[in-house]
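# step 3/5: fold
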Amino acid sequence: MLASFLLAASLAGLQPKTVSLVPTDDFWIYSFASDTKEPYLRAWGNGGKSVALPGDELEAFSYSYLRFDLAALPKNARIAKATLTLFQASGFGYGAKDAETTPLEVRFVDAKLDEKTWDYGKFAQLKPKAGPEGLLGVGKMDAFSANDKPVAIRIDLLAGKGGFAKILGDKLASGDSVLAVVLTSAFDPSANGRDFIYKVFSKDAPEAALRPTLVLEIE
């Protein structure tokens, strides 16, 4: 009996710890965006690109910024899983195949920005790395047949080449508790219509269940 109890306690101690985080700050990055407290985040690109390169017209691209506080994580945490869940708002103008071939992207940015002091003049501070090497992960949408209600988009942040586990490990080891990422997309509304964009709910969404959530499993 005692041996069984000790074994069960030992196995319980080996179970991953789950930490769920919501953004402390998030906002839409676009030259005509004015309200950082609005309930939506948006992302689109131009000319088949999701990240503006030198010489590109910045106004043709739209990103969204999310900042998370890592203070709840132990300094030596090892991440087994990392999933960011977002919800596409209803009324979107793309199909399931479009979402599969041109998914919503998540990229790391080493920029500690906040809603209160954000202005578009700080765009140059973001510098997300373009291409597959800069991706932390890409979105996988839940199945849908119509656009009349929100659809979940789940992003495995360990699946990309951007090195999320190392980024997080380095931050925790150094005592840096701020993680910032941007949402990007190669969807091009200039070619496909104004609703051909990713428009997901922000932390200011009226329904808590639709707000961004980052779930981390710690070994």
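# step 4/5: annotate
Helices lie at 2-14, 96-101, 164-174, 189-192.
# step 5/5: archive (pending)
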